[in-house]
Request: fold
Amino acid sequence: MANRYSALIEAVFLRHFTSNDQSFEFGREELVEIATSEGLAVPKNLGDAIYSFRYRSDLPDAIRAKAPSGHEWIIEGAGRARYRFRCVPVARIEPRAELLAIKIPDATPEIIGANALGDEQALLARVRYNRLIDLFLGITAFSLQNHLRTTVEGIGQIEIDEIYVGVDRTGRQFVVPVQAKGGSDRHGVVQSSQDFACCAQKFPNLICRAVSAQFMAGERIALFELTLSDGQVKVVDEKHYVLSPSTEISVDDLRAYALRTT
Reply:
């Protein structure tokens, strides 16, 4: 399956690419045309063939070799059943192993921890029950919807893992799209860019503060606040939290936290 997907997406890329291109569009139906002409089985789920390279897997070597040094190709939505290859500066959103982890009293109901299905759902539940969005962003936040599927003009259908709305002490109101990743998954700048576009269209009067969450080794949860700067996704802040029984948060821990201002 992976080899077939790679062959199809590589053929689509090479069909359109010229040496001066920074971006170009293609249609989902081209996968069928290429599979038929090359004698390959047509994927039952054409969307998954593209989705896998947008969010989960590296593009084939032949495509990555066409990017200048310090750049990479990404696949964006460009409307219904249409997509765009675009060459962008390399951006990696990865937790820093050396960052101090903050111990937080674990408020996750035991029945949730015992029955969570998959890393992503477990992570979203822990973030929600321990009000980590509130702590991280310094606002009062409320979960509005899980797995929001919607259509964004100029992009097509997207999905946001969870979306919060919130308010701060001055009355400013916020919308917070959250993307959740298990330990081996990677944050995708495509997803974050889509989140910003969605919030601008669906919540034009709210301030968007996008967050990515990731499980790390040692029960750490890494949270990133992201922004768009010159069309690129950038990290504004990063914090690591460890959900701990109260008995494991020592007096020394509390004294150390008391000395910190951020």
Summary: The chain has two domains: 2-89, 101-258. The first strand starts at residue 23 and ends at 27. Residues 239 and 262 are 10 Å apart (CA to CA).
